[in-house]
Amino acid sequence: MPSDCLFCRIVAGELPSAQIYADDSVVAIRDISPQAPTHILLLSRKHIASVRDVTAKDHDLIGKICAVGTELATREGIAEDGYRLVVNVGRNGGQTVDHLHVHLLGGRHMSWPPG
Ligand code: 5GP
Ligand code: ZN
To answer: Most CB within 10 Å of its CB: which of 16, 36, 51, 65?
Structure first.
């Protein structure tokens, strides 16, 4: 685990977070700067810098992250009205933390196209 990775340190419990889900491969926390009434980050336990670094051996992990997103959207009461899953990739994509994560945003209408 890269010791300087913020999300590795959160997953390891070295830094505090509002954790709402954890299993052997995925951890979900509330975003520290929420952009919607529900703003959850789905983190891989394993350090992968970005979705562009995902390889074939990670395909189950990506499926698991999506499944946990569905479960948490239901639990948060936003599944029926709809929500958004967002993955920012690299500099132009707006990625600021280089550890694989998916944003789960909901509780308000989302505009399109994104900014
Ligand atoms: P990105 O910009 O890489 O797609 O998303 C990183 C997200 O992590 C941002 O939405 C940001 O608010 C969130 N974030 C940054 N630092 C922390 C932190 O220390 N704790 C939590 N819970 N979220 C963080
Ligand atoms: Zn990491």
So the answer is: 65
